[in-house]
From TrEMBL:
Gene: LOC118423325
GO molecular function terms listed in the Swiss-Prot or TrEMBL record: oxidoreductase activity
InterPro entries with a match to the protein in the record: NAD(P)-bd_dom_sf (IPR036291), Sc_DH/Rdtase_CS (IPR020904), SDR_fam (IPR002347)
Species in which this protein is naturally found: Branchiostoma floridae
Protein name: Dehydrogenase/reductase SDR family member 9-like isoform X2
Transcription regulation in keyword set: no
Similarity annotation: Belongs to the short-chain dehydrogenases/reductases (SDR) family.
Keyword Oxidoreductase included in the entry's annotation: yes
Keywords: Oxidoreductase
Entry-linked PANTHER family: GH26015P, SHORT-CHAIN DEHYDROGENASE/REDUCTASE FAMILY 9C
Amino acid sequence: MLGTVLPVLLAILAYRLYKWARGLPRISSTADKYVLVTGCDTGFGKLHAQRLDKLGFHVFAACLTEKGQQDLKQLCSDRVVTMAMDVTSHDSILKARDVVRTHVGENGELWGLVNNAGVLGAVGHIEWQTREDFINTFNVNLFGMVDVTRTFLPLLKRARGRVVNASSVYGRTDPGSGAYGTSKFAVEGYSDCLRRMLGPLGVSVHILEPGTFLTGFQAPEVIDRLMHKSWDNLEPDVRSCRQSVQRGGLFRFHQLQPRGRRRSPLPPTA
């Protein structure tokens, strides 16, 4: 009986997978499509710009630093246009929009926007992170994303394009990153709202939720530097809770990191 039923079930499954694959959107040509990627100095943004270039897209690679721009120019073809953009500065975003318009035309289209720019922000126990730490992290990870999306939305609507927002697995469950995880929860909420409101206009909205990757974003030396910075700015009475912190959430969070990257979660005792 099983020998008769199993081939039938496999055939049905294969047919359904075939129909599903046939229904996926197809890109007819990449030669006439423009994509803007923010945060291209390093990490995912830099890799994404290179990948899109190899696929034949025209890429606007927004970098915070001049070095980031120069590095990409050496790695990519002339389809990649590098430009300066500080996502926390509205004037900087407007200047970047002017660059895009000179290439696509006043009535041109933007096929895709990848909001990748982000910062890790302050590191340490939640009590170590100040209001300013949260504001600085949100200014890049959320408010910068909102400003960039709103600024380029007219170009995206003309193309019935797509917005891809870089969130994080910490946007679903945060093991103790504080401001960073909170900002990514906000990114998820913003993306949900954006998706519902732009869907009827033909613009799709997507999120990426990467975990811990070796891009340098969470390199041990970066974590150590940020953690020491938070520790050095603490009031004496907050420092006195060090032992309870080491027994609590921060230590457990540190254990979640890949085995080869674990280091002392707290600065050495003075």
